[in-house]
Structures are given as structure tokens and as C-alpha cells.
């Protein structure tokens, strides 16, 4: 089965509980008609409110939701637990802390195995950034800096591209100087759907939301709009 990643620039059930278009799109790609979905809120410290909002949203959809907290493990065999899922949905938060926690528990390795075996990896903001080679993170207070990530997908990633005013210029500047590799800036409400390492589709749950490929050419940046399909 083709490996799939669906990376959201921001938004989703936590900030728009009445707009679950992206969540429905993710579930529609799964290998079972009523997919098993596991939520990871590692990047925000597994706050109870975030998990409650997740269950409130996904219990309204045709799926079987669960969650994985690395502070209260559902199983000693995390590899098998993840392989039993159809979708793993990763929430936002502090990307650097998320990666540190995952690597302590070998979750990076287990997630790669799950992905290679047909489990869809999805996420929003930090939960999308982690799948790329690097991302533009605000993990440090009042700073936007490059961060090496898992590298399941090539290139760099910037979430909240148009909703946070410092994101776009910083991302462009770092790519122009070679401090970050070429990549993609993604607005809130937009999801990029990858098959393997290839972009298969880009979808939006909002009007006027988009994404841009940003490349370094002779010390400057060139931008190309990603063709985005508005979900109904």
C-alpha cells in the first residue's frame, strides 16, 4: 500500500470544531471504511482539553478514535499499537519538545514503520512539520528558527504561512541565504497530501487559503503557487 502523509498548515478540529472538512478528507483516504484513528498531542504536553476536543470532533465522524499519551501508555508494544491504526493524527505545539519525547520512546522509528506499512500520518502545524527534513519553528520563545525534523518528506516546511506575519518573510529569507532548503509554506486550513515523497493533492477547508513552493535560485527566492482544491 502506498505510504501517505497529509500535512496541514494549521487549523483543524481544535480551532474550527464546526469545520471538519480536512478531517473528513483524511478519513476518506484510509484503507478501511470505518478507520481507526489515533491522536498524539505530544507537542503540547497531552493537555486534557485538547484530547477532549479531539474526541468530540472524531466521535461525530465515521471512525474509531483513540489517543496515545507517552505519559500514560496504552500498551508496552508501541510498534504494534501504531501498526493497528489506519490514521495517526498529530496535534500542534512545541516541535522540538515533541521530537525529543518521540525519540526517547523510539516513536520516530515506529511511526516510519507504520507509514511504510500503509498507516496514514497526518498532523497540523508542528504535527505536520515533523514529517519534513526541516521546518521553521517557534519552539524557542520569540524566535523563528530552522529545526531538523524526521525527514520522511524532503525539503522544508513552514506552517501558518499567511496567518502569522513574521513567518513568510523569515522563511523566504532563510531559504534565500541557504540557511534552509527549498520548501513549502502552507496556510491555515490547507492540507498537502503526499503519496510517498510526491505531492498528490492539496486541499483547503477555507476560501482564499493556499500554499507556495519556495525555491532558492541564485541567492534569491522564486515562488510558485500550489494548485489547491477547495473542499465542499
Major sheet: arrangement of strands: 3-2-4-5-1-10-11-14
How much of the residues is beta strand, in percent?
25-35%
Number of helices: 7
Low-pLDDT windows of residues: none
| Fraction in helix | 25-40%
Mean pLDDT: 96
- Shape type: globular
Oligomeric state of the chains in view:
single chain
- Class by SSE composition: alpha/beta
The topology string of helices and strands comes to EHEHEHEHHEHEEEHEEEEEE
How far from one another are the termini? 27 Å
Quantity of strands, as a count = 14
Main beta-sheet strand count, sense and barrel state: 8 strands, mixed
- Give the C-alpha Rg: 17 Å
How would you describe the overall organization of this protein?
By secondary structure, the chain is of the alpha/beta class. The chain has 7 helices and 14 strands. It has an 8-stranded mixed β-sheet with strand order 3-2-4-5-1-10-11-14. The protein is globular and about 50 Å long.
Amino acid at each position: 500500500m502506498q505510504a501517505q502523509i497529509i500535512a496541514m498548515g494549521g487549523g483543524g478540529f481544535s480551532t474550527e470544531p464546526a469545520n471538519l472538512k480536512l478531517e473528513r478528507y483524511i478519513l476518506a483516504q484510509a484503507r478501511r471504511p470505518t478507520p481507526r484513528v489515533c491522536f498524539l498531542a505530544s507537542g503540547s504536553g497531552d493537555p486534557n482539553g485538547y484530547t477532549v476536543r479531539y474526541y468530540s470532533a472524531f466521535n461525530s465522524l465515521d471512525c474509531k478514535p483513540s489517543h496515545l499519551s507517552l505519559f500514560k501508555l496504552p500498551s508496552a508494544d508501541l510498534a504494534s499499537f501504531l501498526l493497528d491504526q489506519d490514521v495517526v493524527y498529530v496535534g500542534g505545539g512545541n516541535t522540538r519538545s515533541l521530537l525529543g519525547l518521540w525519540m526517547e520512546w523510539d516513536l520516530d522509528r515506529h511511526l516510519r514503520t507504520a507509514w511504510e506499512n500503509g498507516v496514514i500520518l497526518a498532523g497540523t502545524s508542528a504535527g505536520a512539520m515533523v514529517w519534513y527534513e526541516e521546518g521553521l519553528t517557534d519552539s524557542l520563545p520569540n524566535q523563528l528558527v530552522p529545526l531538523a525534523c524526521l525527514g520522511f518528506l524532503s525539503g522544508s516546511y513552514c506552517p501558518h504561512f499567511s496567518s502569522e506575519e513574521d513567518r513568510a518573510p523569515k522563511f523566504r529569507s532563510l531559504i534565500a541565504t541557504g540557511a534552509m532548503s527549498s520548501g513549502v509554506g502552507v496556510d491555515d486550513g490547507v492540507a498537502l497530501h503526499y503519496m510517498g515523497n510526491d505531492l498528490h493533492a492539496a486541499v483547503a477547508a477555507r476560501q482564499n487559503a493556499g500554499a507556495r513552493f519556495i525555491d532558492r535560485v541564485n541567492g534569491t527566492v522564486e515562488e510558485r503557487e500550489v494548485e489547491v482544491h477547495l473542499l465542499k
